[in-house]
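Reply to dn_fold:

You asked what the input looked like. This is it:
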Amino acid sequence: MGRPERNLPESPDGILVEVTDRVIGARALLAPGPNPKVFNELVVGLLGRAMEHSPVELCACVFMSNHMHLLLHVRDQQALSRFMYHFACNSSKKIGKIRKWKGSLWGHRYDVVPISREPEAQWKRLEYHLSHGVKEGLVESPIEWPGVHAAVPLLRGEKLEGYWFNKTKEWAARNRGQDVGTYDFATKYRIELAQLPAFRHLSPEAYQDKVSQLIIEIQDRYRAERDGNPVAGVEKILSLDPYEPPTRHPKSSSRPRFHVASRQARDELWKEYAAFATQYRMASEALRIRRNPAAIDWFPTGSYPPASPFVGEPAPPRPQSPPTRRLVLDGLRIVDRGEIPVVEILAPVRVEGADSCEFFRVGGRSP
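and this is what came back:
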């Protein structure tokens, strides 16, 4: 029987979801050491290339030592699946190469929890994301976390910056005997974090002020809870052994079906999901048990039928390989290097007084 819980019902305005994934064995393979700047640029480059591959909006992100959280505004399940497939596969290869780790970096399939359209529910999830690093007693403020964290970009209105490295071109150049530099086949990605859908009526400055107040509240709350006890500090975080299994089993709890702020919103979402799941299971039973080929058209829009293509709008075409810097060669010797190309991943266009906006934009590629 098909599993409707692994699908998102279609929504014309998109769906805000919280995505969580944990490193295999809860090891600290995502600890941003020994060089945090290089490691963070690699992670952001992986996010940027995945966002170019599948259009999603990134509202917040936090990469702890052994797990990650993303707040994504997605069009449908297909966009989310393509994004996570691209990011998970390439992060396993590229981060695994740094860590000398073979196989998958991730311990299991990522968890997805839809978030209601209520402003209170969306803000509560942003608070949860920004509190990472502080609530565990690791740093005093979320802006001190040495890994990739949404606190600073949201607070200052900055973009996340990182690099995607085209290893295919680099490998071919090395085979030709060229003296290849670190960034000769790199593309810079700049990612603009999108405002939460329920707060897109705010100006960027007002949204930053609201985030700033939230960060102050987080710092004050957990400072009081520590009752004078010191935090672990950045130095201890960077000294973690990425291969050593944790001394205690990571905290785990059953994930909710939805994140909501009121019982009414929960009931409405359950009602929508029940109708979606009922239609999905009936179509699945007709397709797999009764062998009725016409049942493929009965699946709800926004779902993946068992062993069948996605039901809904076709996926966007695969993007071209990102550009790399222009190299001037004298035989096999590189005599001049151009600038590293930049790909801008822009947030949605905010429309004054409107509830919806253009869903996704990728900025032009500049040399």
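DSSP finds eight helices and ten strands in the chain.
Hope that clears it up.
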